[in-house]
Amino acid sequence: MSEELEDLLTAGERAAFHGRPAAGVNPLQQAVELAHAAGRDAEATAAAWLLGVCLAASGRYGSALSVLDGLAAHDPQEADKRLFCSLAAATVGSIHRQLGRHADGQHWDNRALAMAGSADEALFDAHIGLAADAVGLGDSPGALAEIAVAEQVADGRTEWWRQRVRLDWVRAEVALLQGRPEEAARRAATAVSIAETSQAPRHVAKGLLFAGISFVQAGDLDEATAMLRRSASLAESLGSLPLVWPSRAMLGALVEISAPEEAQKSIATARAAVRTISDDLPPALAAEWTARADVVALLED
Questions:
Q1: Which helix (H) or strand (E) covers residue 15, if one does?
Q2: Which pLDDT band holds residue 1 (cuts at 50, 70, 90)?
Q3: Residue 300 has what pLDDT?
Q4: Whether the predicted pLDDT of 9 surpasses 80
Q5: Cα(242)–Cα(95) distance, rounded to whole angstroms?
Q6: What is the pLDDT of residues 120-153, one digit of tens each?
Q7: Is residue 137 in some structural domain?
Q8: What is the distance between the alpha carbons of residues 139 and 145, in angstroms, rounded to a whole number?
Q9: Distances, alpha carbon 75 to alpha carbons 36, 89, 94, 116, in Å
Q10: Residue 283, CB half-sphere, CA atoms under 13 Å: how many?
Q11: DSSP assignment, residue 60?
């Protein structure tokens, strides 16, 4: 691999998982072009997947899908390209899940699983995605079964910080689905701790969001407010709109009486984030996104 291509991929990966996702877009676009020009298809596929991750993490879902859909639908024979096509399919599944389209997410995560082969990283992402899809579909047994498989894949891989964080996110989601907010809060706290140690601020922000939701369900609104403030501020500093809008929307609702000015600003920020996400989606998905009950409630409140 050329030094320039390696530097671009490193910069993109760092932005995707350890910095502002938008900062990875330009270097990864360059990496895709450079890799294609050099006939390095595997590196081009890896760069395209990372580009999709950066776009999705910024809330540019439509742009991310335009990059990832072709990879996710592709079925290459080469193992290295197949790995990244599987990861791309799992990322497409995650995007649909974030849009509230859990059945579509399940379709793409099954696609990711079919392409994963024996690649543990791809197997993990497919199974943890299927677990999250099951949560969204209200299927606790299905989620627990997929979590168990993901745990087996990750067993002994102490270097897998991202995977361990994602396991605790979904464990927290299952606990919330089953009405066990105290356990959900513990799982979220573990995810935050791992992400902080790994210097992964976006993952910290999402863990704090889960913690805030858990404390709301537990009735500890003061702690929920503190967690959501931290999540929202961190997400904003990273430009991660998928985390900005729910954290700001919930925070605004919580402090409506105690801090009306803060509530007004938080709700306005949440609305702006939702509209920006909508603006990047193709028309059919944008219409579906803005018709979601929670989005409708936010925009019409």
A1: helix 3-18
A2: low
A3: 87
A4: yes
A5: 10
A6: 999 999 999 999 999 999 999 999 999 999 999 9
A7: no
A8: 10
A9: 18, 11, 19, 11
A10: 0
A11: -
**DSSP secondary-structure letter at 220?**
-
Tell me if 185 is assigned to some domain. Answer: yes
Closest CA to 119 of 92, 147, 157, 148: 157
Which two tokens mark 29? 């676009």
| The one-letter amino acid at 210 | F
Residue written as tokens 């990244």? 84
CATH number at residue 181: 1.25.40.10
Q: CA-CA distance, 301 to 296, in Å (whole number)? A: 8
| 293 found inside a domain | yes
- Contact (Cβ atoms closer than 8 angstroms) between residue 1 and residue 44: no
| Confidence band of 165 (pLDDT split at 50, 70, 90) | very high
Q: What is the residue range of 231's domain?
A: 164-301
Number of separate domains in the chain: 1
Dihedral, CA atoms, 277, 278, 281, 287, nearest 10 degrees?
150
Give me the phi and psi of 194, to 5 degrees please.
Answer: -65, -45
Pull the structure tokens for residue 14: 């760092």
CA angle 260, 262, 264 (to 5 degrees): 70
Query: How far apart, in whole angstroms, are the C-alpha atoms of residue 184 and residue 187?
Result: 5
Domain assignment of residue 266, yes or no: yes
In sequence order, which ranges of 19-139 are alpha helices (DSSP H)?
Answer: 25-37, 41-58, 61-73, 79-98, 102-116, 120-136
pLDDT for res 160: 98
Residue 300 and residue 274: Cα distance in Å, rounded? 12
Distance CA 296, CA 274 (A): 10
pLDDT tens digits for range 23-76: 999 999 999 999 999 999 999 999 999 999 999 999 999 999 999 999 999 888
